[in-house]
Amino acid sequence: xxxxxVIPTWRRTSLLHNLLDALSxxxxxxxxxxxxxxxxDPETRSLADAYKAPYxxxxxxxxxxxxxxxxxxxxxxxxxxxxxLFLDDDTEPVPDWIHHHLKHHRANSGQFNIGVYGKIIDKxxxxxxxxxxxxxxxxxxxxLASFEAQVRNHALEFGKIAxxxxxxxxxxxxxxxxxxxxxxxxxxxxxxxxxxRLYNQxxxxxxxxxAVVYHHDT
Length: 218
Fold this sequence. Notes:
Blueprint: E1 3-9, H1 13-23, E2 31-38, H2 42-50, E3 56-62, H3 68-78, E4 83-86, E5 91-93, H4 97-107, E6 114-123, H5 131-153, E7 168-171, H6 172-177, H7 189-200, E8 204-216
């Protein structure tokens, strides 16, 4: 079972470079990476010209910045694998990240469609700049833990917060059956909207705690 990793990016070349290096350490080897550059970005174009990856790496350069949902949709349209995995450019997956996503798709009998969530761990390079920021940093792990528990336990409340974005995977066909992300939404709303549509279609959600992605929060 092959997969396509879709990465939207725009003007964050150093973070993207770090992510591409991390993907070179994956224990799975049969995958492709599609980077969608969402608008004019000379530094990332230079990276694309110079970067040599041990995996199949393709670049899509959009002429204008249309936002994250459009960029993800463009990557999904270009994908050639049956499984789509989504990352953001400020993330870093552990070496067996792809493996832990794919094991659920490989084990699925096909009786129902599934969507897989991995675990997100925030990392910060700077101390908090205010009491408010400190509070938000301290409260975010509790929010993520609550979200993960609802996915794991199939809680009824999960339908209200079934956001489906970074560190998730799904059948490419399922993605297109639901028309992908809404290009008119942005900044978390697109994740919540797509997750709600998946939930309403009866998609079974799987939480995989070993599919860890570190989020370099900027």
